[in-house]
Amino acid sequence: MLKITPYLGILVIIVSVAGLWFPLLGYFLLLVFATLLITSVFRGRWFCGNLCPRGSFNDFWVGQITRNRKIPAILRSFWVRVPLFLLMMGFMGYRLLSTQGLINQIGMVFVIMCLATTTIALLAGASISPRTWCTFCPMGTVQNLIGGHKYQLQVEGSKCIECNKCEKSCPMQLDVHTSTIKPDCIKCGRCITACPTKALSFKA
Ligand code: SF4
Ligand code: SF4
Ligand code: SF4
Question: How far is the C-alpha of 131 from the C-alpha of 125, rounded, in Å?
Fold first, then answer.
């Protein structure tokens, strides 16, 4: 199974910082958008837990300085997430229209978007929990809506000893063994590794 690595997080720094001088780096975001949209059809938020550079940045880099607090429930609410998605997409659309099709300026719109969201992710992750941004990230919300019911984690009830090690290992702070459908599960597999009785597995 593909696992997220610390090295992917370097791409976030390259696009957010080097992109200010080399705006074409911003087009990397298009590759990210396309990949997550395709994978979400089959595996929901799998991209977030296995391939997203910012997910790696949050896990391994922000994870070094986080205060590891509970993520506020309001941030999971679609009353927050959908308006945020519309706001960010609307703002990006407005900025793209004002570039008049100039290649470098379009790239810079993506770079600024990456820099702004990385800054929010860093502040939220450091002050609360590494994956705080990922609870309301517009791209996570899109994947939730497209394929959140796909590739669900199964709990074999007869094997579960209610030790809660799965919950403690979950970067998204989900109710791992008590809820049946978890549209915000990022399929990282950390709960499976943590479970002492092998009660957890994924079902396509
Ligand atoms: S929620 Fe957003 S930032 Fe977080 S891993 Fe998914 S796509 Fe990346
Ligand atoms: S439920 Fe398991 S696989 Fe899903 S995000 Fe939490 S730890 Fe990762
Ligand atoms: S870690 Fe395994 S045994 Fe423990 S509560 Fe979770 S599913 Fe049950």
Answer: 6
CB 153 less than 6 A from any atom of ligand 3:
no
Is the predicted pLDDT of residue 29 greater than 60, yes or no?
yes
Q: Where are the domains of the chain?
A: 6-147
The pLDDT of residue 6 is above 90: no
pTM of the model: 0.94
Q: Closest ligand 1 atom, CA of 140? A: 1
What is the C-alpha to C-alpha distance for residues 106 and 76, in angstroms, rounded to an integer?
A: 31
pLDDT exceeds cutoff 70 at 94: yes
Helices (H), the chain: 10-17, 28-43, 46-50, 53-56, 78-97, 103-127, 132-136, 138-147, 165-169, 190-194
Provide the pLDDT for residue 1: 52
d(CA 64, CA 187): 22
Q: Are 66 and 86 in contact (CB under 8 A)?
A: no
Residue 172: name the closest of 145, 138, 143, 133 by CA: 133
**Rounded Cα gap, residues 99 and 197, in angstroms:** 56
137 close to ligand 1 (CB < 6 Angstrom): yes
Enter the tokens of residue 4.
């997220």
Question: Are 86 and 165 within 8 A, CB to CB?
Answer: no
pLDDT value at residue 203 = 78
Q: Is the CB of 171 inside a 6 Å radius of any atom of ligand 1? A: no
